[in-house]
Amino acid sequence: MSRKLFPTQEIGSLKKPMWLLNLVKNPSISKEVKARTRNDAALLNIRTLEDLGLDIIYDGEVRRVEMYEEPVRYIKGFDFAGRIRSWDNKYYNKARVNGPVSYKRNFHEEEFKYTKEHSKRELKVPVTGAYTLADWSYNEYYKSKDDLILNLAKKVLRPLVKDLVKLGAKIIQIDEPAATSHPAEMDIFRESINETVKGINAKFVVHACFSGNDYMALAPQMSEIKAQQYTLEFANRDTWNLGLNDKARKGYQVLKAFREYGYKGEIGIGVIDVHVDEIEPPELVRDRILYAAKALGDPAKIYVNPDCGLRTRSRLVAFNKIKSQVKGAELARQKLS
Amino acid sequence: MISSYTLGIYPRSEELIEATRKNSSNLSSLFLKEKKEYIALEKKAKLGFVCDPLLEWDDIFRPFAQLNSVKAAALNRIYEMNTFYRRLSFNGKALSGAGKIVKSNLAVSLLPKNRAVCLPEPYTFAERHVSSAYKKNDEFAIFLAKLLRKEIDSLTKAGFKLIQLIAPSIAYNINKVDLDLVYDALNIVTKNLKAKTILHFYFGDVSKKIGKLLDLPVSGLGFDTTSTPISSIKKHSFSGKALAVGLVNSYNTKIENKKKCISEMNQILSKTKPEEAFVTTNFDLEYIPKEFARKKILILGQIASGVRNV
Question: Which residue positions in chain B have pLDDT lower than 50?
Fold first, then answer.
């Protein structure tokens, strides 16, 4: 299928509306009302992302607690140990693996069905990958971390993805923020993705956060991993100066290395920094896209997205950033037309 | 004779986590209550050295952001952990204000006489942060060594008898670290110091460099045994040095088998013959929830006492 240059997409999460959080935490509200309200919130996200002009969307992960705790709740073999600090006063609920892991049911079924029913856009379903689930948990059952990762890939992620594809999912994004935090573990990371997708007919996208070595540990593996696209962070290491030179676009230099390592697939380039409130001007987004297209050597391989999920920003800031992202992609298309 | 202590920051209780998130009005009293509880627990466990649980510290470097010339900036990953610290930006060469920072962030009055404190060693500090005044990391490390010395002098005056110098950056970068620089920086920190100093390695396997690390100007070395194998520690003589063995794992909720740890410790001591020995946690207890941290503190004391009684 031929498509326009520089398709735009989101990574996954948006901040949940305060009215939703207040309502779902209220014990006096019935389950039925909470379910209807979650649907309302999902619909609001879907329509907003469509109206902002994104080509590929989802529901802002509005029904999920967050990307780790949500799947762990539904995987047999885990139990929550308690909250652990991420930074400052931010914590996450960390689980331990104390038995063999197994898949119980498609825990993303409801959100996928609802999103599919209410949007005509292409949908990209984010699922948290086996490597990250293992890395963020205490392994107190399997002999090695590798064993845990491969068991999660084969016995949990693969059946989950199969079930999503059976329901009609065509693009699956495997979220692996932990992937690059252990450069020495890239072999097992590669194997975990390949085991997850084995025998499944869908487009696979791998989302990995930046972690200290500028994706150089990932670069040699990219061609060996059975994914058609990587959505990666670039904007938070780039300058805010306009221009297409290496100095202005220092955050995107690593794309050249991907090419040198023989990677021929697509890259979803992060053009929006999700850690700051300032809105990137569309002209800056344009220059980032044009530079990336040249560095990778094929504009048709460039997709455009924020660096990561936008849940760390207010909804207003997130939507303004997406607006600028879409406008910037349009400016880049005009430049190449 | 074997002693014991914990390292670094302790986990907050669920109640305290919620209070910090909501900035509750009773936050200060909750912090104090929980500090007292932890210190009482350390005493109950009969740890050789008692530490402030550092509950108000957002990371091990953060108190230094209170210096006039220092700002806490972007979040950075703590090595390969799913945890982040704020990189500090040092904007000057002046040491004004140094010497009061750490002490003012400790509950000194709550601690017994056998008190210990945990600080980053200069190489780790320099490797993790930035300076606009010092472009070269070695100069920055020496600057930080001087800063730390002022802090440590103040702490020893306040009765701290053991200074734990945590060295994750040395361990993590063990194959490229300039040990001459580490030596020089540590020399500034420890020269003629009356308190004991233990340089503690975690987040990296230092087994191939233990021989060289033994030459560093500190009272002793400490090891996370999940990253530096016990078998490699046993190969070295610790004659004239102290040895701290991080046998209690702060990255796992399983409670250690006391008998097995006592036996392991006895074997290590018989091989290494240190001047003084400690059994410790491998790193900060804040990587496990409070419920498990409490159990780990108690088992740590039992292991130390078991070894002592052999």
Answer: 310
Question: Across the interface, which of B21, B84, B292 has its CB nearest the CB of A87?
Answer: B84
**How far apart are the C-alpha atoms of A65 and A61, rounded to whole Å?**
8
CB contact under 8 A, B291 and A82: yes
What does the mean pLDDT of chain A come to?
96
Domain ranges of chain A: 18-64+102-336
The ranges assigned to domains in chain B are: 2-60+98-308
CB pairs under 8 A between A and B: 64
Complex ipTM value: 0.92
Instruction: Check whether A26 has a pLDDT greater than 80.
Output: yes
**CA distances to B235, B301, B302 from B47, in Å:** 27, 5, 9
Q: With contacts defined as CB-CB under 8 Å, which chain B residues touch A87? A: 58-59, 75, 83-86
CATH of B2-60+98-308, one of 2.60.120.260, 3.40.50.2300, 3.30.990.10, 3.20.20.210: 3.20.20.210
Which of A337, A245, A233, A247 has its CA nearest to residue A291?
Answer: A245
Question: Which of A85, A182, A275 faces B286 most closely, judged by CB atoms?
Answer: A85
A227-245 pLDDT, tens digit each:
999 999 999 999 999 999 9
Cβ contacts of B58 on chain A, cutoff 8 Å: 87-89
Given this model, what pLDDT does residue A173 score?
Answer: 98
| SS3 (DSSP) at B155 | helix
Say if residue A286's pLDDT is above 70.
yes
Q: What is the pLDDT of residues A149-189, one digit of tens each?
A: 999 999 999 999 999 999 999 999 999 999 988 999 999 99
Q: SS3 string of B45-110?
A: CCCCCEECCCCCCCCCCHHHHHCCCEEEEEEEECCCCCCEEEEEEECCCCCCCCCCHHHHCCCHHH
pLDDT at A209: 87
- Fold topology of A18-64+102-336: TIM Barrel (3.20.20)
Q: How far apart are CA B300 and CA A33, in angstroms?
A: 50
Handedness of CA B270, B272, B273, B276 (dihedral sign): negative
Q: Which residue has the tokens 């593996």?
A: A221
A80 touches chain B (CB under 8 A): no
